[in-house]
Protein backbone atom coordinates (compact mmCIF):
# COMPACT_ATOMS: atom_id res chain seq x y z
CA UNK A 1 0.00 0.00 0.00
CA UNK A 2 1.38 3.37 -1.03
CA UNK A 3 2.28 5.82 1.74
CA UNK A 4 0.24 8.96 2.01
CA UNK A 5 2.18 12.07 0.93
CA UNK A 6 1.68 13.62 4.35
CA UNK A 7 3.52 10.71 5.96
CA UNK A 8 6.72 11.64 4.18
CA UNK A 9 6.21 15.34 4.83
CA UNK A 10 5.79 14.73 8.56
CA UNK A 11 9.07 12.84 8.88
CA UNK A 12 11.37 14.83 11.21
CA UNK A 13 14.31 16.46 9.53
CA UNK A 14 17.79 16.09 10.97
CA UNK A 15 19.56 19.35 11.78
CA UNK A 16 22.16 20.29 9.17
CA UNK A 17 25.75 19.46 10.05
CA UNK A 18 27.70 22.54 11.18
CA UNK A 19 30.15 23.90 8.63
CA UNK A 20 33.78 22.89 9.13
CA UNK A 21 35.99 25.27 11.07
CA UNK A 22 38.51 27.33 9.16
CA UNK A 23 42.10 26.17 9.64
CA UNK A 24 43.15 28.89 12.08
CA UNK A 25 40.10 28.40 14.30
CA UNK A 26 40.46 24.63 14.03
CA UNK A 27 44.08 24.71 15.20
CA UNK A 28 43.20 26.74 18.31
CA UNK A 29 40.02 24.80 19.14
CA UNK A 30 41.76 21.45 18.62
CA UNK A 31 44.63 22.45 20.90
CA UNK A 32 42.19 23.52 23.63
CA UNK A 33 40.36 20.19 23.27
CA UNK A 34 43.66 18.30 23.59
CA UNK A 35 44.63 20.30 26.67
CA UNK A 36 41.33 19.43 28.34
CA UNK A 37 41.53 15.77 27.37
CA UNK A 38 44.98 15.56 28.99
CA UNK A 39 43.41 16.21 32.39
CA UNK A 40 41.67 13.51 34.46
CA UNK A 41 37.89 13.65 34.00
CA UNK A 42 35.89 14.14 37.18
CA UNK A 43 34.11 11.11 38.64
CA UNK A 44 30.36 11.48 39.15
CA UNK A 45 27.93 9.52 41.34
CA UNK A 46 30.60 7.00 42.26
CA UNK A 47 30.82 5.76 38.71
CA UNK A 48 33.96 5.36 36.67
CA UNK A 49 34.85 8.68 35.03
CA UNK A 50 34.37 8.93 31.30
CA UNK A 51 36.69 10.65 28.86
CA UNK A 52 35.05 13.51 27.01
CA UNK A 53 36.11 16.81 25.54
CA UNK A 54 33.64 19.05 27.33
CA UNK A 55 34.01 18.95 31.13
CA UNK A 56 31.20 21.25 32.15
CA UNK A 57 33.25 24.24 31.10
CA UNK A 58 35.93 23.52 33.74
CA UNK A 59 39.56 22.47 33.30
CA UNK A 60 42.13 21.99 36.07
CA UNK A 61 45.89 22.00 35.59
CA UNK A 62 48.77 21.58 38.00
CA UNK A 63 51.07 23.62 35.78
CA UNK A 64 50.75 27.34 35.25
CA UNK A 65 52.08 27.24 31.69
CA UNK A 66 49.29 24.84 30.66
CA UNK A 67 46.64 27.12 32.16
CA UNK A 68 48.24 30.17 30.58
CA UNK A 69 48.28 28.51 27.17
CA UNK A 70 44.61 27.58 27.41
CA UNK A 71 43.73 31.14 28.42
CA UNK A 72 45.65 32.46 25.44
CA UNK A 73 43.87 30.13 23.03
CA UNK A 74 40.42 30.87 24.44
CA UNK A 75 41.16 34.58 24.16
CA UNK A 76 41.88 34.15 20.46
CA UNK A 77 38.61 32.20 20.15
CA UNK A 78 36.66 34.97 21.94
CA UNK A 79 35.70 32.65 24.80
CA UNK A 80 35.87 34.33 28.25
CA UNK A 81 37.34 32.31 31.08
CA UNK A 82 37.91 32.76 34.81
CA UNK A 83 41.23 31.65 36.31
CA UNK A 84 41.40 30.56 39.96
CA UNK A 85 44.56 29.52 41.76
CA UNK A 86 44.51 27.22 44.78
CA UNK A 87 47.48 25.95 46.78
CA UNK A 88 47.66 22.94 49.05
CA UNK A 89 49.89 20.35 50.60
CA UNK A 90 51.95 20.42 53.77
CA UNK A 91 55.48 19.18 53.24
CA UNK A 92 55.13 19.33 49.47
CA UNK A 93 53.23 22.36 48.28
CA UNK A 94 51.36 22.28 45.00
CA UNK A 95 49.29 24.64 42.87
CA UNK A 96 46.02 23.93 41.11
CA UNK A 97 44.92 26.20 38.29
CA UNK A 98 41.20 26.03 37.58
CA UNK A 99 39.81 27.61 34.41
CA UNK A 100 36.05 28.07 34.25
CA UNK A 101 33.99 29.26 31.29
CA UNK A 102 31.02 31.41 32.38
CA UNK A 103 27.72 29.55 32.36
CA UNK A 104 26.19 31.64 29.58
CA UNK A 105 29.12 30.82 27.28
CA UNK A 106 29.31 27.08 27.94
CA UNK A 107 27.00 25.93 25.16
CA UNK A 108 29.04 27.74 22.51
CA UNK A 109 32.26 26.56 24.17
CA UNK A 110 31.11 22.93 24.16
CA UNK A 111 30.12 23.12 20.50
CA UNK A 112 33.47 24.69 19.56
CA UNK A 113 35.51 22.09 21.45
CA UNK A 114 33.54 19.17 20.07
CA UNK A 115 33.90 20.48 16.51
CA UNK A 116 37.59 21.18 17.02
CA UNK A 117 38.29 17.73 18.43
CA UNK A 118 36.30 15.80 15.83
CA UNK A 119 37.63 17.73 12.86
CA UNK A 120 41.23 17.79 14.10
CA UNK A 121 41.18 14.10 15.01
CA UNK A 122 39.77 13.25 11.58
CA UNK A 123 42.51 15.25 9.85
CA UNK A 124 45.28 13.49 11.79
CA UNK A 125 43.97 9.93 11.83
CA UNK A 126 42.81 9.95 8.23
CA UNK A 127 45.20 8.74 5.56
CA UNK A 128 46.77 10.93 2.88
CA UNK A 129 44.19 12.54 0.63
CA UNK A 130 45.02 12.33 -3.09
CA UNK A 131 45.25 15.82 -4.50
CA UNK A 132 45.15 17.41 -1.02
CA UNK A 133 45.17 21.18 -1.05
CA UNK A 134 48.23 23.18 -0.07
CA UNK A 135 46.39 24.37 3.04
CA UNK A 136 45.76 20.79 4.20
CA UNK A 137 49.38 19.81 3.63
CA UNK A 138 50.51 22.83 5.68
CA UNK A 139 47.99 22.60 8.52
CA UNK A 140 48.02 18.87 9.27
CA UNK A 141 51.57 19.04 10.72
CA UNK A 142 50.48 22.11 12.69
CA UNK A 143 47.61 20.15 14.18
CA UNK A 144 50.07 17.39 15.05
CA UNK A 145 52.30 19.92 16.78
CA UNK A 146 49.30 21.32 18.67
CA UNK A 147 48.45 17.86 20.02
CA UNK A 148 52.01 17.25 21.19
CA UNK A 149 52.27 20.73 22.68
CA UNK A 150 49.14 20.07 24.73
CA UNK A 151 50.41 16.69 25.92
CA UNK A 152 53.79 18.06 26.96
CA UNK A 153 52.14 20.94 28.83
CA UNK A 154 49.23 19.13 30.49
CA UNK A 155 49.92 15.40 30.29
CA UNK A 156 51.89 13.40 32.81
CA UNK A 157 55.59 13.71 32.05
CA UNK A 158 57.35 10.38 31.51
CA UNK A 159 60.98 11.32 30.92
CA UNK A 160 63.76 8.77 31.04
CA UNK A 161 67.36 8.87 29.91
CA UNK A 162 66.50 7.41 26.53
CA UNK A 163 62.96 8.70 25.87
CA UNK A 164 60.68 11.69 26.07
CA UNK A 165 57.15 10.56 26.87
CA UNK A 166 53.77 11.48 28.28
CA UNK A 167 51.19 9.52 30.28
CA UNK A 168 47.55 9.81 29.19
CA UNK A 169 44.30 8.14 30.17
CA UNK A 170 42.67 9.01 26.86
CA UNK A 171 43.21 6.25 24.29
CA UNK A 172 42.02 8.43 21.40
CA UNK A 173 44.43 11.23 22.26
CA UNK A 174 47.24 8.71 22.55
CA UNK A 175 46.45 7.49 19.02
CA UNK A 176 46.39 11.09 17.80
CA UNK A 177 49.87 11.66 19.27
CA UNK A 178 51.30 8.59 17.56
CA UNK A 179 49.85 9.62 14.20
CA UNK A 180 50.86 13.23 14.80
CA UNK A 181 54.44 12.20 15.47
CA UNK A 182 54.48 10.34 12.15
CA UNK A 183 53.35 13.52 10.38
CA UNK A 184 56.29 15.27 12.01
CA UNK A 185 58.61 12.52 10.69
CA UNK A 186 59.12 11.05 14.16
CA UNK A 187 58.38 7.42 15.11
CA UNK A 188 56.47 7.19 18.41
CA UNK A 189 55.85 4.21 20.65
CA UNK A 190 52.53 3.55 22.41
CA UNK A 191 52.37 1.14 25.30
CA UNK A 192 49.97 0.57 28.19
CA UNK A 193 50.98 1.76 31.64
CA UNK A 194 49.41 1.46 35.08
CA UNK A 195 45.91 2.72 34.33
CA UNK A 196 47.15 4.87 31.47
CA UNK A 197 48.87 4.91 28.10
CA UNK A 198 52.44 6.06 27.58
CA UNK A 199 53.42 7.67 24.28
CA UNK A 200 57.14 8.22 23.83
CA UNK A 201 59.79 9.20 21.32
CA UNK A 202 63.49 8.45 21.47
CA UNK A 203 66.01 10.98 22.69
CA UNK A 204 68.24 12.52 20.10
CA UNK A 205 67.04 13.85 16.72
CA UNK A 206 63.47 12.56 17.21
CA UNK A 207 63.04 14.29 20.58
CA UNK A 208 64.58 17.48 19.18
CA UNK A 209 62.22 17.46 16.20
CA UNK A 210 59.18 17.17 18.47
CA UNK A 211 60.37 19.97 20.76
CA UNK A 212 61.19 22.21 17.79
CA UNK A 213 57.73 21.62 16.33
CA UNK A 214 55.86 22.47 19.54
CA UNK A 215 57.85 25.58 20.45
CA UNK A 216 55.38 28.32 21.37
CA UNK A 217 57.43 30.92 19.57
CA UNK A 218 56.38 29.25 16.33
CA UNK A 219 52.82 28.55 17.35
CA UNK A 220 51.79 32.04 18.44
Structural description of this entry:
The protein is of the alpha+beta class. A hairpin with a 2-residue loop joins β4 and β5. It is built from 8 helices and 7 strands, in the order ααβαββααββαββαα. The termini are far apart. It has one domain: Roll (Endonuclease I-creI). Strands 4-5-7-6 form a 4-stranded antiparallel β-sheet, with helices on one face. Strands 1-3-2 form a 3-stranded antiparallel β-sheet, with helices on one face. It is globular, with a radius of gyration of 20 Å. The mean pLDDT is about 85. It comes from Micromonospora sicca.
Write the layout of secondary structure elements.
Blueprint: H1 5-9, H2 23-37, E1 58-61, H3 64-76, E2 82-88, E3 94-100, H4 106-125, H5 134-154, E4 156-160, E5 163-168, H6 171-183, E6 189-192, E7 197-202, H7 205-214, H8 216-219
Antiparallel strand pairs: 1-3, 2-3, 4-5, 5-7, 6-7
Helix pairs in contact: 2-3, 2-4, 2-5, 5-6, 5-7
Amino acid sequence: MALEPTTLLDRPRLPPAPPPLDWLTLADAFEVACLVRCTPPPATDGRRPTVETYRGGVAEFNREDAARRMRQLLGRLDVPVEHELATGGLRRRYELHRLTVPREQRSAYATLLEAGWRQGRRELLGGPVPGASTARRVWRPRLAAAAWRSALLAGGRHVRRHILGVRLIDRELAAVLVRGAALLDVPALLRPGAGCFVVSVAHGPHRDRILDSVALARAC
